[in-house]
Amino acid sequence: MASLSTIHPSSTPSLILKTPKQHPFSLSKTKPTFYHFKNRSFSLNSVLSTETDPKIPQTVEKFWLWLKDEGIVSAKTPVKPGIVPEGIGLVATRDISRNDVVLEVPKKYWINPDVAATSEIGSVCSGLKPWISVALFLLKERFKGEESKWKYYFDALPQGTDSTIYWSEEELLEIQGTQLLSTTLGVKEYVQSEYVKLKEEIILPNKQLFPFSITLDDFFWAFGMLRSRAFSRLRNQNLVLIPFADLINHSSKVTTEDHAHEVRGPAGLFSWDFLFQIRSPLSLKAGEQIFIQYDLNKSNADMALDYGFIEMNSDRDAFTLTLEISESDEFFEDKLDIAEMSGLGGSAYFDIKYGQPLQTAMLQYLRLLALGGTDAFLLESIFRNKVWGFLEMPVSRANEELICQVVRSACKSALSGYHTTIEEDEKLMEEGNLSSRLAMAVGVRRGEKRVLQQIDDIFKERETELDFLEYYQERRLKDLGLVGEQGEIIFWEPK
Ligand SMILES: C[S@@+](CC[C@H](N)C(=O)[O-])C[C@H]1O[C@@H](n2cnc3c(N)ncnc32)[C@H](O)[C@@H]1O
Fold first, then answer.
1. Which end of the chain is more exposed for a tag (fewer CB within 10 A), N or C?
2. Is any atom of ligand 1 closer than 6 Å to the C-beta of 308?
3. 294 is catalytic
4. According to the annotation, is 40 in a ligand binding site?
5. Where does residue 142 fall: left (phi above 0), alpha (psi -120 to 50 degrees), or beta otherwise?
């Protein structure tokens, strides 16, 4: 567990640095997976068509032919599957301008909770979480083989991804001390407990619906597919698998996220339906790969967990700081009240990104936690509506010094939990030749440490400024016109 120091003698703030409070199934905007080429079934006897890359696995080739048979792919479709550095991807067959339609997939091929609910397992889906009903649906359809409408799609799906949820214990050792490890373990525990419940309450009592074994590994496979391939944040669609669209890889060169749309249009000779449409975010020459942006807000740790790859630039390096009002704080009730009035709670989470300034709300919360001693008068009820605003600026030297000490000691404690230094990680990166998982581990652990180091540096510098900052009492006197131009206090003088 990557959680760190808790410092709480009464009336000092408690500060806990730990894993982001991430819902185990918070899917992002547009997202794909990792199917690694190595994970796909591959036969040397493939019947290869002349129009796709001859190295394409047979399963993907057959999926492509199926897309054509179904009319999802036509002569108008300007892309085809190809082998690319990211595994399989979609490659332009002719020049594509920015915003041109790249693909359209009619609603009848989408896989979402509504589809699970109206399927033959629908009777058991009503009480299930949406992602669990879709996971169960995937497993059922995969078992049906030839009888499933999506057979060729399932055959083309990979056996797994490079997500940290699939890493061996030895691989996980490479991320010891990181928030990524703690999130990964939390997600694994969550999926496992959902599996145990599902097996007991749904799978075993409904043998007629599930006349095949569903192992924990199967359930993890379905979870990983959804986590890495499902699209979300579409209008009315928070969790939807779109066969074909999920062959598109991610690039940091794409800096917008509005490439996926739900439109109405022709879906077959005589019918109209909703279509999932992707427009190209970039202009492309024939032969170039089409990319999208999976999610601008994800940290590298989120990317590693969801997709099994990270970006090597530092923009996605992040660390989540968890601050908590200690129940043993003598002003616990007042502080909690103030935190709640400002939309926070007894615990607050702040995502800190490399190279970005600290959020004002974090400084306010820290100052609140540290309030005590001669500053405690600010906690009185007459200040209740104003105190949060006062906390935007330093309150007193003692308060500001305390937050510096607490944050710096928490950062140091967090940094000591990693088994390598930033320099060691950088050396490994420079040497190269790392496996994809090790490169991810080194990148994430270096990133977290760089953010912690950055936070420590900010508070270290602040410590040197303590004598020069302006504190609450001075501001107050100024507001009342009681401080002269040189900072001297103006006393009342009788006329
Ligand atoms: C939906 S799939 C896209 C198609 C996939 N490349 C395939 O072989 O089927 C997403 C997966 O592709 C790979 N991928 C996508 N973008 C990538 C990138 N920029 N760098 C490395 N791998 C990437 C990752 O394995 C990711 O989980």
1. C
2. yes
3. yes
4. no
5. alpha
State the Cα–Cα distance between residues 265 and 76, nearest whole angstrom. 15
Which of 140, 137, 158, 138 is CA-nearest to residue 307?
158
Give the distance (Å) from ligand 1 centre to CA of residue 163: 11
Cα separation of 488 and 472, whole Å? Answer: 16
- 83 - beta bridge partners? 88
pTM of the model: 0.86
Closest CA to 191 of 163, 155, 172, 150: 163
Say how far apart CA 261 and CA 138 lie, in whole Å: 24
116-157: pLDDT as tens digits: 999 999 999 998 999 999 999 999 999 999 999 999 999 999
Residue 345 pLDDT = 95
Residue 199 carries which DSSP code?
I
The reply to whether 437 sits in an annotated binding site is no
- Cα(223)–Cα(25) distance, rounded to whole angstroms? 9
| Cα→Cα distances 413→143, 342, 420, Å | 49, 29, 14
Q: Could you give the ipTM of this predicted complex?
A: 0.99
Low-confidence stretches of the chain (pLDDT < 70) are: 1-51, 234-236, 267-270, 482-495
